[in-house]
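One chain given next:
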Amino acid sequence: MARKSGKRGQHQRFYKGLLRWVFLLFFASSMLLFALILIFRFVDPPTWSWKLQRELNPPVDQSIVSKHEWWDLQYIPPAMQLAVVASEDQNFPRHMGIDFKAVQQVLKEAERGRALRGASTLTQQTVKNLFLWQRRDWSRKLLEGGLAIVLEVLWGKRRILEVYLNIVEFGPGVYGVAAASEYWYQLPLDQISHNQMARLAALLPNPWRYHAEPPTPYVSERAVWIEQQMDRLGYVWLLPVTGG
């Protein structure tokens, strides 16, 4: 009996020690992530998770030469900002990181047998691009939602939009609206038309499949819809974000 009790005690000490190390690892990882979020509130990220994963594992088994140019939000044309908001997250000025109405609508559509579509906000996409992995699963979505709320509190809308517009992918290895304009139109961002900006926004669901120039039929149709949404929303829609 004493020998069995001794083994049981060893097992208990082992599991307690293991749990302690798991907790410490989780705590250290959380603190590191929190520190990075605070740093990136003021410092432009030199790289990010999505970019690194693309370079290590490109979708079509080809090497990537990354193209990126950072523009502060004050220099990004309001039309480009509005085009992306109109295309990706029209409730961006209103929600706190998670658009619960959009999530409810997706769940209702799924109950009716429709294909499950994404309901990620710009904030959630920023979190995913900066910190998380590509594969879709519930653990990523839960972490994405929690960190999105943290970003809303610590960063605010203006910084979230600025970072998103500078790190989101617009083509194979093309990151940010400034690099996208040069890549697709060979023009600086502040010299392209509203339709060209809408075409860039139309690429975001799948920047490896669609082309802004010459535009695919989908991109042309999507750009027309985006411009209509821009007219409907108006630039006043972005005032709570930009403070302009």
